[in-house]
Fold:
Amino acid sequence: MELTSYSSQQNGFRCASHIQELAQHSQLLTDWSLRYDQISQGRFEGEIKEAWLDGVQFYEERLSQSVFQSGEGRADTLCLGVFNALSGDTRWMGKNLTLQDVTWSYKRGELMLQTPEYSSLQVLSIPLSLIPDMIDELPHAVYAVRNDALASRIRQQITAVLHSMIEHPLQMAEKQARLQFKSDIRGLAFAFFDVIGKHPPAVKHSRQKAQRVVAKAQEALIANRDRPLTMDELCLITHTSRRTLQNCFETVTGQSPAVFLKNMRLNGVKRMLVMGNEASNISEIASKWGFWHLSQFTVDYKRLFGELPSQTLKAIRCPG
Structure:
């Protein structure tokens, strides 16, 4: 991983490229509480550019594999997101996304995002203190609206700020420049609320149910991580039939419950290998996540991540 960063009292910028571990990638974002799970097969590589100005955060992340992100948005902020590139199906809270969609999360709203095998996402995070007169107009804590003009405007703003922070890092030190910057951000927020007011998105009950079912299944997996849950157990836990359970997972994750939850467990193992100590033991960690047959676990691990568990440990212990 290559990392470049600088910060002053008010401003900061960070760029990390050639990130080989998803667990490290997810920890680079400031003030976010997100879990990233790789769900497509192959080696991962990521890149993050992040800037912050007077509490306003901008970031762009590129992911080389399909990743399921879950967790909470930033506290006390309105977060707007747009994609620059999508190589395939993308799901935000069960809703299929395009490059014309603008996603939002508000006040630590619970979010679920499934990206395709290549994606480039840009996010703008606005402190609520900067827009106190607007925020009451938001109809849902987390959702998306399709508006090409708004998506393009947000994309241009984020791109311009990231470029400026790279090429002219001292530009925002001037008082007048900061005042204009805040005015521009408020104008962008006003445009967002104007679109929402004129075209309020309708939230489908079926998507909300699917989100709850997947979240409950994830919680059950963590609580019983030392053994794989059967489909019958998951149906009892989520109060669904097998068909409904299947449909809910496909809506939110794009995968069957069995495949997705196995991928989560494999990601749990890799996360512990990457973030663990020097004495990390592969077989012990695998058994903690319900993988009791080490040879089959090794095959499954390599199929998903494109490397053996021992190679993961070696790369962490001997980087470069």
User: Anything to note?
Assistant: The chain has a mean pLDDT of 91. The CA atoms of residues 7 and 135 lie 29 Å apart. The domain at 2-198 is CATH 2.60.120.10 (Jelly Rolls). The chain has two domains: 2-198, 205-317.
